[in-house]
Amino acid sequence: MSDILVSIITVCYNSEKTIERTILSVLNQTYKNIEYIIVDGLSQDHTLDIVAKHQKDFGDRLKVISEKDNGIYDAMNKGIRNVRGQLVGIINSDDYYESTAVERMVEAMTSDSYQILYGLLRKTHNGVEYQVMMTKHENLENVMIPHPTCFITKKLYTDLGMYNTNYKSCADYDFMLTMKEKPNVRFIPVYQVIATFEETNGMSSKASAHREVLKMKKERKLISNKQFLIGEMKIVLKALISK
């Protein structure tokens, strides 16, 4: 299976504090047939200096795009349009892979054209692990599967579409729900820790993200108007309690 080229995308903006860990997690994969695409939104800090430092480690396997974008999902779509690999993983600049992540996903691949492979996600706060979790795709209508662990065939993106940039924080969730509706898309759970997600503070950004998810679920008729209003009330109460 080493003949399968895997494309990894990292989207970043002013990520000097965390991106080196992300880069090293890609560089140190046990599976080596990888191309790496970093999509930068014109960072103003030392992010690009850190990327340049590792250019020689990847050689021609690293492609850097640095230009203004229209948000994280626009940047992800830009990365996807530039990949050459058969399988695509997206790891953000404050998350990182286990060293065997790509190897595990390639091993789990089947011959299906449209595949979404996903695994276990480790969550940390201030560097301390507090949870290892997986949400199964059968429960997608309620909870998003762990996107940092997802690897998706390029053919799926090419034929069935990418991320809706009208969403600012839940386009990946919207995408997965759309893919679940398609009978020819195969979801494949991989029971290994694939990536680590660093939990950050920031109630306002979390609140806006939760609101967007509620709105998206309401539009898809996954929740009722009553459930939408109850969800809104919970967000407001949580914000007041946290003050």
Task: Write structural notes for this entry.
This protein is α/β, with parallel strands linked by helices and 243 residues long. 37% of the residues lie in helices and 25% in strands. The chain is built from nine helices and nine strands. Strands 1, 2, 3, 4, 5, 6, 7, 8 and 9 form a nine-stranded mixed β-sheet that branches. Helix 8 packs antiparallel against helix 9. The longest helix is centred in the last third of the chain and has 18 residues.
Quick summary of this structure?
This protein has helices at residues 19-27, 47-53, 55-58, 72-81, 101-108, 154-160, 171-180, 203-219, 225-242; strands spanning 6-12, 34-40, 62-66, 87-90, 95-97, 115-125, 128-133, 151-153, 186-199. It is of the alpha/beta class.
Strand content: 15-25%
- Overall shape: it is globular
Gyration radius, in Å = 18 Å
Number of helices: 9
Ends distance: 52 Å
Overall pLDDT: 94
What is the N-to-C succession of helices and strands? EHEHHEHEEHEEEHHEHH
> How much helicity do the residues have?
25-40%
Low-confidence region ranges: none
What summary fits the major beta sheet? 9 strands, mixed
Specify the structural class: alpha/beta
Tell me the total number of β-strands. Answer: 9
